[in-house]
């Protein structure tokens, strides 16, 4: 919770950076996110030791894992001063994910007799978490793209003094991250379909979260195919990306609660 | 042993006065010798550029007498110009002025860096001819260091203040690289040519030139190492184009939204940078609302250059504070004993 509060502080600080147009490298934000990540790591390690396995077994843990991959990715990229501005985009995303993860009922007690155990489950959860991490970063890339596009068209000086990369570069990053997200999501879903068997009376294809996940997969694949085939520029892809990930953030929790496979009664 | 400075610059004298007092590069060693011999300076450096002529000198005697002698030296063979075209500084203002000049604070284009190179060259000439000593060595070495510090600690050199360089900067914010980009120049005007040259110098691959007078287009294309295109056929080449610079004298739009939309499909919606420097404008402003199209007219570019200049001006107080501190430090260290020539030379060479 303290880590999320620090990400929130980072977001508050990022608000001023946005207003200044990312003019300077910002070690304050980088430092805040580094402190947040240190606390975040301690919390994940402690939970891992307490449950004697990788802490990616429910929605809270999976979201915390996604956040950890996002902040770790940022801290590595932020070592290069040219990329340190990315914190202004990462901190609101981390704070939103953190608030989401702390919502009640996302962290039910671990069942005594889990429906699925073993390495396949950890692999499935890790792949899915990384997939949403990539899609989350792409969401950040889309925010950057739209901000840069707006400035290049209507606030021209701000576009020049900001630290954002060229808009063509942002488009390429956005596309690659969506592609990575799709590949990881495909692998995560395939691992579950191939490596796990539902209990008698249950079917994967009738589970709300599985149907939802397939819907998300089709949406992102469709978005990428549409982008490639219809010769659309980054603008529509960025909006599609924003809407897609906002949908994921807003519905993930509810769908997870409806899923008996993903939310077993202890 | 005070350091003094006497000179004239673009603020105090028009070009017709400055050119009379300019000293050619080849005459500098002789001029330095005369400053030392006739004006009684123990050390001297002469800076002569298109915007300024300045003599920095140090003496063991009286600074005021040296300034008077320098004035006589510079006026030798010339009629006294009208008005107060010369300025003179004694310590600490002379040292602060040197630091300001090195940092581009006294330049016509605020914060420009060319002057630092010119100042280094002027110092090198004096050093090679053994006209500098401990005081000027230290003063110039510290001036170069202060200029470097100001460049890294402030935004005084940030951004472009000319239309052509603003256009290049915008292109770099749109395209991941300018290497391999194709530029089309419509209308063979002077600013268009400068902008095309600036883009080429940053990696743009080729230039197509289209003009009502095909001969003029061919001449410019040849100068830019590009290809001329008939004025009524430029749209056919559009699939290749990444950047358009338009500066025709047409009384109507040369490119409008209706015309551009199908052309964008042919380009597979790659980003397109349109630079319209014509008055009246060549490109309909509505095209800026098309996806992947970025339009800038002459007012946009000039406004950006002016904004950059304003940003630089906002940094002046910060720069002056750094200069005051560094100049004071330098003068304090001189009072504690001048550094030997060798030390100064080593530090300067090593930067």
Description:
The complex is a heterodimer of chains A (266) and B (351). Chain A has helices at 2-20, 27-51, 59-77, 87-101, 119-154, 156-161, 167-195, 208-229, 234-258. Chain A is mainly alpha-helical and 266 residues long. Chain A folds into two domains: 1-110; 115-266, no CATH class. Chain A is globular. Chain B has helices at residues 15-21, 28-38, 63-75, 93-103, 114-128, 134-153, 163-174, 190-201, 214-224, 257-266, 298-314, 316-335, 341-350, and strands at 3-9, 43-48, 52-58, 87-89, 182-186, 206-211, 227-230, 243-246, 272-276, 293-297. Chain B is an alpha/beta fold. Residues 338-351 of chain B have low confidence and may be disordered. The A-B interface holds A 23, 148, 152-153, 156-157, 159-161, 164-169, 172, 231-236 and B 155, 158-159, 166, 169-170, 172-176, 265, 268-269, 271, 288, 291-292, 294, 296, 300, 303-304, 307-308, 311.
Give the strand order, joined by hyphens, for the main sheet of chain B.
7-6-5-8-9-10
Task: Kindly report how far apart the N and C termini of chain A lie.
Answer: 24 Å
Structural domains of chain B: how many: 2
Largest interface: chains, residues each:
A-B, 22 and 26 residues
Layout of helices and strands:
The complex is a heterodimer of chains A (266) and B (351).
Chain A: H1 2-20, H2 27-51, H3 59-77, H4 87-101, H5 119-154, H6 156-161, H7 167-195, H8 208-229, H9 234-258
Helix pairs in contact in A: 1-2, 1-4, 2-3, 3-4, 3-5, 5-7, 5-9, 7-8, 7-9, 8-9
Chain B: E1 3-9, H1 15-21, H2 28-38, E2 43-48, E3 52-58, H3 63-75, E4 87-89, H4 93-103, H5 114-128, H6 134-153, H7 163-174, E5 182-186, H8 190-201, E6 206-211, H9 214-224, E7 227-230, E8 243-246, H10 257-266, E9 272-276, E10 293-297, H11 298-314, H12 316-335, H13 341-350
Parallel strand pairs in B: 5-6, 5-8, 6-7, 8-9, 9-10
Antiparallel strand pairs in B: 1-3, 1-4, 2-3
Helix pairs in contact in B: 4-6, 4-12, 5-6, 6-12, 6-13, 7-8, 7-11
């Amino acid at each position: 919770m303290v880590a999320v509060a620090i990400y929130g502080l980072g977001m508050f600080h990022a608000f001023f950076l946005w207003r200044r147009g990312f003019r300077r490298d910002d070690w304050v934000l980088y430092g805040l996110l580094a402190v947040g990540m240190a606390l975040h790591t301690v919390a994940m390690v402690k939970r891992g030791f307490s449950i004697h396995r990788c802490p990616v077994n429910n929605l809270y843990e999976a979201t915390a894992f996604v956040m950890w991959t996002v902040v770790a990715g940022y801290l590595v990229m932020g070592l290069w001063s040219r990329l340190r501005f990315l914190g202004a985009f990462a901190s609101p995303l981390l704070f939103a994910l953190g608030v989401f993860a702390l919502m009640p009922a996302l962290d039910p007690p671990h069942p005594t007799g889990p429906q699925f155990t073993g390495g396949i489950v950890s692999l499935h959860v890790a792949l899915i978490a990384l997939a949403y991490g990539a899609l989350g970063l792409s969401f950040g890339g889309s925010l950057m793209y739209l901000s840069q596009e707006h400035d290049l068209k209507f606030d021209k000086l701000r576009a020049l003094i900001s630290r954002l990369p060229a808009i063509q570069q942002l488009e390429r990053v956005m596309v690659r991250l969506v592609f990575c997200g799709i590949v990881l999501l495909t692998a995560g879903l395939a691992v579950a379909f191939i490596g796990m068997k539902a209990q008698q009376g249950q079917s994967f294809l009738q589970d709300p979260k599985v149907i939802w996940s397939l819907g998300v997969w089709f949406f992102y694949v469709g978005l990428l195919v549409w982008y490639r085939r219809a010769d659309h520029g980054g603008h529509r892809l960025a909006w599609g990306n924003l809407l897609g990930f906002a949908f994921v953030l807003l519905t993930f929790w509810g769908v997870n609660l409806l899923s008996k496979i993903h939310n077993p009664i202890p | 042993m005070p350091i003094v400075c006497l000179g004239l610059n673009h603020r105090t004298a028009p070009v017709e006065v400055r050119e009379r007092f300019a000293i050619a590069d080849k005459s500098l060693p002789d001029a330095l010798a005369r400053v030392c011999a006739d004006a009684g300076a123990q050390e001297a450096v002469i800076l002569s550029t298109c915007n300024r002529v300045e003599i920095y000198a140090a003496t063991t005697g009286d600074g005021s007498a040296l300034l008077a002698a320098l004035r006589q030296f510079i006026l030798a063979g010339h009629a006294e110009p009208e008005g107060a075209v010369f300025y003179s500084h004694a310590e600490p203002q002379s040292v602060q002025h040197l630091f300001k000049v090195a940092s581009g604070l006294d330049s016509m284009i605020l914060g420009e860096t060319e002057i630092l190179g010119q100042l280094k060259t002027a110092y090198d000439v004096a050093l090679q001819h053994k006209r500098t000593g401990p005081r000027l060595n230290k003063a110039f070495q510290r001036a170069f260091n202060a200029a470097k510090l100001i460049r890294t600690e402030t935004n005084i050199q940030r951004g472009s203040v000319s239309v052509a360089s603003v256009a290049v900067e915008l292109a770099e914010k749109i395209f991941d690289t300018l290497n391999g980009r194709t530029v089309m120049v419509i209308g063979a005007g002077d600013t268009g040519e400068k902008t095309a040259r600036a883009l080429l110098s940053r990696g743009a691959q080729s230039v197509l030139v289209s003009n009502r007078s095909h001969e003029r287009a061919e001449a410019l294309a040849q100068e830019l190492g590009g290809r001329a295109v008939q004025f009524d056929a430029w749209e056919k080449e559009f699939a290749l184009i990444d950047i358009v610079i338009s500066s025709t004298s047409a009384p109507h739009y040369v490119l409008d939204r209706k015309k551009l939309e199908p052309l964008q499909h042919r380009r597979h919606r790659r980003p397109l940078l349109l630079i319209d420097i014509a008055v009246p404008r060549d490109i309909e402003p509505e095209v800026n609302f098309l996806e992947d199209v970025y339009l800038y007219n002459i007012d946009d570019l000039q406004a950006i250059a002016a904004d950059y200049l304003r940003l630089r001006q906002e940094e002046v107080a910060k720069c002056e504070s750094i200069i005051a501190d560094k100049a004071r430090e330098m003068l304090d260290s001189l009072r504690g004993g001048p550094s030997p020539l060798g030390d100064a030379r080593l530090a300067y060479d090593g930067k």
